[in-house]
Design brief:
This protein is of the alpha+beta class and 738 residues long. The strands form nine sheets. Strands 16, 17, 18, 19 and 20 form a five-stranded antiparallel β-sheet that branches. The protein has a five-stranded mixed β-sheet with strand order 29-36-35-31-33, with no helix packed on it. Helix 10 packs antiparallel against helix 11.
């Protein structure tokens, strides 16, 4: 976790650059960088650059330091220089990826998308390595962000920074409101003068503060009694009126190591630290932080973030089930939401049954975005981005709600700063009405929360739309946008269908078309909106959903052209699901085997009514008539929903090199009523041996043995288990480390 501190004057002696050798200056700058003093390092790197402006290694160091310092604009500029100077990308192959990431965090989504695509090609020789996975993920994520930017922020949400009684020129992070007080962590330097510079310094520490909310210009009070000497504290979460959890962190060379402890407030409002949680949470040698106490079903749980054994990436979201004394009895990884990067800041909404968290992975607008995961039937669903304006291109963290108020901490443009506009987080608030508490899970399971729509659903299009006069299979329009364009042309269609007809025929043609618009075109759009909730419910049950969609066209154009046209019409439906409801379906549509899949059947005009006119010069019949209009459609003809076909007993193994066993084993449980056939793909065959094909009988379990060779160095291997019939995939990660 990065910290930004304030200091009036640099304490170390200023070097005379006119006399010092370049290597001495660089050595001193490197020393500050390695300590974590990025502001001080940047000062010397930039002055060294004046002495040696073509030094590619130095330009790279400045780019990296600015990125960590969260100066996205300067980081983008210097990564761009590295990318241009390092033509063959041999010295700094990651420059193009970091350049694109900074463009994205500066809101330049189109430019970033082009560079992510380039990075993906550069890294494609090794698709198992992080750079390729990150570039591939960002191509999908940035495409998603572009579509969301087209929709724009929710205009009903007005988000504003809290006042300067809370926010300062340094970083503030909100945690909770309890008994009329806001609890937040901050870096306050009240004794420092106004000649402010953001630097890292071991003489300042993060602390917890409380302030009445609304504050009425009162001063925040530091919870000094909770701070062990030389430590930092943050992340308050209350169990009840008096007891709460928080983080205590040691700063070793500017690097945090955190654990979670109990605190207590007595009846007089005085605070004291009680004890740390047991090893089940505070696993020795690992970080455990950001506690959030809540209820999950009937159990008391503590959500937290940690890089402990079993973590997928850097930091994962975990939860501990607590006993009556508030100690952990077991710990679970929230595996459905965690990624290979940082997943942090958990907050659980017991009204909506949603776990909110921040992540630098998934489909997002920038660095860290806020996501939520629906908790249904004992399972957490895929991560859903909460959208704009809660999120931004910058880093958005520590989401929580209190009544109708929603809070998020962000370093977005507009936050207070002294030197770097995106250096430091402020706490922001928006008023968003909360729903009333939901019924119990038992009631929910017996009452469908949606109206079942009878298939097929027919969705109609304007002539040669979307995107007329092209043979492309792709469109950026979603179906609702296409419908709106069509609706705007209804009157024009009714006018033109009556031309060159006698009065009786004209009235009949207009009435038929008007009836078609009201009873079929509008009906299809309304049914789609209802059907959307039906699809969502199936996904929340943990099922894999397939939608079979047929596309049709009138016979006016040539067969090949109409085939492309119907593919665009089906694409508009896919775009609709990617963009509707703040893009929450998007996470289910990713990857080679998405959880939400579209089976496309572009029929063109092959099934069009043979009596429908195809005469270009008779457009009252071939374009504007009801008969021609009925042919321009897609149909959702089938929804297939299937639960997971198998379950693995293990998702990861953590092993020390000196303790590498000869064998590992895991179980595969067949969740279906039929024979299950699985293929097993291993990593490096020289390091492990296991069967490549297994069969598991209906509703039974099979033990699979993995033979390992003795390894003397760290290695990460992945086992992929695939249902041969449905292509469903699950993974086991083997991490052998020192």
């Amino acid at each position: 976790m990065s910290r930004f501190y304030l200091i009036g004057f640099l304490l170390l002696p200023y070097l005379s650059f006119s006399q010092a050798k370049l290597k001495d200056v660089l050595a001193f700058a490197d020393q500050q960088y390695n300590k974590g003093d990025y502001y001080y390092a940047l000062d010397y790197y930039n002055q060294a650059l004046v002495m040696d402006p073509e030094n590619l290694d130095l330009i790279w160091k400045i780019a990296e330091t600015n990125r960590i310092y969260k100066d996205y604009k300067e980081a983008e500029r210097f990564y761009s220089l590295v990318y241009m100077k390092d033509d063959d990308a041999e010295r700094y192959p990651e420059a193009i990826l970091n350049f694109a990431l900074m463009e994205k965090q500066n809101g330049k989504y189109k430019e970033a998308l082009d560079h992510f695509k380039t990075a993906k090609k550069i890294y494609s020789e090794d698709m198992q390595n992080y750079p390729y996975k990150k570039a591939a993920q960002e191509v999908e994520s940035t495409n998603w962000a572009l579509k969301q930017m087209k929709i724009g922020p929710d205009i009903g949400i007005q988000i504003q920074a809290l006042g300067e009684d809370v926010n300062s020129f340094d970083a503030e992070f909100g945690h909770t409101i309890r008994d009329g007080a806001l609890y937040f962590s901050s870096l306050k330097a009240d004794s420092i003068n106004e000649e402010l510079q953001e630097v890292y310094s071991p003489s300042y520490h993060t602390a917890l503060y409380e302030i009445p909310f609304p504050s009425n210009q009162q001063k925040a009070r530091k919870l000094q009694a909770l701070i062990p000497k030389g430590k930092s504290i943050a992340n308050a979460s209350f169990l009840n009126e008096f007891d709460f959890y928080y983080s205590v962190c040691s700063d070793q060379g500017y690097r945090y190591t955190c654990g979670i402890v109990f605190g207590k407030r007595d009846s007089l409002g005085q605070w004291k630290m009680l004890d740390s949680l047991n090893q089940m949470v505070n696993l020795s040698g690992f970080n455990s932080s950001m506690p959030h106490f809540s209820k999950l079903g009937n159990e008391n749980v503590l959500f937290f973030s940690s890089n402990r054994t079993g973590t997928k990436g850097e930091m994962d979201i975990w939860y501990a089930v607590l006993d009556n004394q508030g100690q952990a009895t077991r710990v679970e990884n929230v595996s459905n939401i965690n990624s290979i990067e940082n997943d942090i800041c958990p907050w659980y909404d017991t009204i909506e049954n949603r776990l909110y968290f921040s992540s630098s992975w998934h489909q997002g607008f920038g660095g860290q975005d806020v996501f939520y995961s629906e908790y249904r039937n004992g399972k957490f669903g895929a991560p859903i981005n909460v959208g704009l304006p809660i999120n931004s291109p910058a880093a958005d963290q520590y989401y929580f709600q209190y009544g109708d108020s929603t809070f998020v901490s962000s370093n977005r443009l507009g936050s207070l700063y002294a030197k770097n506009p995106t250096c430091c987080s402020d706490i922001y608030m928006a008023e968003i009405p909360r729903r009333k508490p939901k019924k119990s899970e038992d009631q929910i399971n017996h009452i469908l929360p949606y109206e079942v729509v009878k298939l097929p659903i027919r969705l109609y299009f304007e002539n040669d739309q979307p995107d007329a006069n092209t043979t492309s299979d792709f469109t950026n329009l979603n179906y609702l946008e296409s419908f709106q364009k069509y609706a705007e042309q209804f009157d024009s269609y009714k006018t033109k269908v009556g031309l060159q007809r006698d009065s009786i025929q004209s009235k009949q043609a207009v009435d038929a078309l008007d009836s078609f618009f009201k009873e079929e075109v509008q009906k299809g759009k309304n049914e789609l909106e209802k059907f959307t909730n039906q699809v969502w419910f199936e996904l929340q049950k943990g099922n894999r959903v397939q939608l079979m969609v047929q596309g049709f066209a009138s016979p006016l154009a040539k067969t090949d052209y109409n085939t492309h046209l119907t593919k665009r019409r089906i694409q508009s439906l896919k775009n609709y699901f990617e963009e509707v409801q703040q893009g929450r379906f998007g996470a289910y549509m990713l990857g080679e085997n998405p959880v939400l899949e579209f089976i496309e059947v572009p029929m063109g005009e092959l099934k069009a009514n043979k009596e429908t006119s195809d005469d270009y010069y008779d457009q009252k019949n071939s374009v504007y008539s009801k008969a021609a209009s009925q042919e321009r459609r897609i149909e959702i003809i089938e929804l297939r929903s299937s639960a997971k076909s198998f379950e693995l007993s293990e998702t990861s193994f953590e092993i020390k090199t000196q303790e590498t066993p000869k064998k590992l084993s895991f179980q595969v449980e067949n969740k279906t009523a039929g024979l299950l056939e699985l293929s097993i793909e291993k990593g490096n065959s020289a390091l492990m041996n296991l069967p490549s094909y297994v069969q598991v009988k209906a509703m039974e379990k099979l033990n699979v043995t993995v033979d390992l060779k003795k390894m003397n160095q760290p290695v990460v291997q992945t086992i992929k288990v695939v249902n041969i019939l449905t292509k469903e995939e699950q993974f086991i990660r083997i991490n052998i480390n020192n």
